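Async update (no meeting this week)

Hi team, since we skipped the sync, here's where things stand on the single-chain job. The sequence we agreed to prioritize is pasted below, unchanged from the tracker. I ran it this morning and attached the output directly underneath so nobody has to dig for it. Comments welcome in thread, and please keep replies under the output.
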Amino acid sequence: MNDTEASGFTAVMRLRELAMSGAYAATVRAAARLRVADGIGDRPTTAEELAATVGAEPGTLLRLLRALVAHGVLTEEPDGFAHTEASRLLREDAPRSLRNMVLWATEPWTWAVWGLLDESVRTGKGVFQDVFGKEFFSYLHEDAPASAEVFDRAMTESSRLSARTVADVLDLDGVTAFADIAGGQGLVLATLLERHPQLRGTLLDLPDVIAGADARLRPGGALADRVTLLPGDCRDTIPVKADVYLLKNILEWDDDSTVTTLRNVRAAAPAGAKVVVIENLVDGSPEMRFTTAMDLLLLLNVGGRKHTRAGLSALIARAGLELGGVRQIGPYLHCFESTVPAS
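Output:
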C-alpha cells in the first residue's frame, strides 16, 4: 500500500468511526448506568465477577467491556479488566468524577434532537420545543425530573472541577455582598464563603434547583446564616443587590436571552458593582471536539451557543456593561470582568 492509499484508508476508517460515534456515547453511558467502574477494584476483574457485582449477563457485559477497552476507558489484562485514568473518572467516589456529566450528555432527550441537527443548521433555531412541545428547562422540571437531577449533579461536578480556580482568581477583598446567578446547587458559592468569612451570599436559581442546594447552604447548614437562597429565573428578573455578581457557564442561551440576563443584572446592581462572567470559549478551548459538540447541542436544545471571545464581549457591551478585561483562568476557562456604570 502506497502513501496515497494509506492516507485514503485512514480517512475511510476515521469517517466510519465518526458515523458510529453514537454507539461510543451509548457505550460509556451504559458503563456509567451499570456502575462498571465502581465494580472494579484495585486488581483486574473478570467479566463473570463484574457481572455478578453489577447485575448483568456475563456474555453481553463482556462485549461492552471490549468496546470500552477499544476506546481506552478500560484495559484488558491476562486475568481480567482493569482501570485506566478514564475509567476511574466514571466512579461515583472519584474526586474529579465525571459520571453525571456522561449521563447528562447522553440523556434520552439528546438522542431525539441530534438527528435534527441539519434542520437547526438550516434555520439557526433550536428544535427541542418542536420535538417535546415545551421549552427545554420546563420539560426537564415538569416531565423529566430524573433528567433534571442528573443535570444538577453534572453541573455540580463541573463546579467541583473549577471551584478552587474561581476562588483563587476572584478578588473579594472588601466585598461583603456576593451573588451567584444561576449558580446551581451552590458549590462555588460555598467555596467562596468558606474562604472569605466577611462575605454574605445569594444563590439564585430555579426553584427545583434551589431545593437541592448544597447542604452547607440550606437551613441548619454551616453557612446558612450567611446565605440567601432565592428561587427565580434570571432571564425574568434578578432582585439582588450585591457588590459582585458571578455568572459562570450559564450565558449559553440565544443571544437575546444572554443580553436580557445581563441587563437584569445591571438593573438590579448598584453603580460600580462588578459583574464577572466565566465561560469556556469556542476559540479558547484545549478540548475543541468537546466544546464544538456542546456548541451544537446548545443550538439544538435552547437555540444557544458557546461563545467566542469577541462575540461574548460584544454581548456584554450590548447589555450596557463596561468590559474591563478578559483573562484565561485555569486550562479551559476565560473570565470577563465588567462594571455596572452610573445611570
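Quick observations from my side:
The radius of gyration is 22 Å.
The beta strands are 74-77, 80-83, 177-181, 200-205, 227-231, 244-248, 274-279, 322-329, 333-339.
Reply here if anything looks off.
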